[in-house]
Write a structure and sequence with these properties.
Blueprint lengths: L6 E2 L3 E4 L6 H8 L2 H7 L7 H10 L6 E6 L5 E7 L10 E8 L8 H16 L4 E7 L3 H9 L3 E10 L2 E11 H6 L4
Parallel strand pairs: 5-6
Antiparallel strand pairs: 1-2, 2-3, 3-4, 4-5, 6-8, 7-8
Helix pairs in contact: 1-3
């Protein structure tokens, strides 16, 4: 069982997924726009979402994004375990959000808290993030969060081949921006 870490932003709670979150997860994970942007197959049933919670979203430092007001799971966010570059301890952030909450700055708020958690609590020296070039909304989240572009490469996932842009934020850059 993963350590039970709970984080908080102004509008969300980030907590470990529970099997009872499957219906909320299915609600947005069946949407092709979310699945294509996240690089996973669209969920076909609540049972698919339950399997993903057990197999993928039960990993350490992976969180359900819960809207404070409703208690509804509106997204997923966390660290993927991918280590890149030679910057010392590093990890990569990944996220997905229910389309009904797109364009409200929620994921930028969530990423800011994940950066704080990664640098302060986990002691990371570098945090990575990436997006498919056909996902400009994710690019805006990444740029607003202070990441610097590093390179692009073609990535193959469950939904095909995508030109992917990779970004990094170093602890010293983050601290220099008035954090930590």
């Amino acid at each position: 069982m993963a350590e039970r870490i709970v984080l908080e932003t102004a509008r969300t709670i980030l907590r470990p997924f529970q099997i009872t979150d499957a219906a909320d997860l299915y609600e947005f994970s069946r949407d092709r726009r979310v699945a294509d942007a996240a690089g996973w197959p669209a969920h076909k049933s609540v049972a698919d979402s339950q399997k993903v919670i057990v197999a993928v979203f039960s990993a350490p430092n992976t969180f359900a994004v819960v809207e404070k007001g409703s208690g509804k799971v509106i997204g997923s966010a966390g660290f993927t375990g991918a280590v890149r570059g030679a910057f010392g301890p590093s990890d990569e952030i990944g996220y997905a959000l229910h389309p009904d909450w797109w364009g409200r700055g929620i994921m930028t708020e969530v990423v800011a808290e994940l950066l704080r958690f990664g640098f302060e609590d986990r002691g990371l020296e570098a945090i990575w993030c990436s997006h498919y070039t056909e996902n400009p909304a994710s690019r805006r989240v990444i740029e607003k969060s202070g990441f610097s572009y590093v390179a692009a490469e073609t990535v193959v996932d469950d939904n095909g081949e995508h030109l992917t842009r990779f970004y990094v934020l170093l602890r010293q850059q983050w601290k220099g921006d008035g954090h930590g």
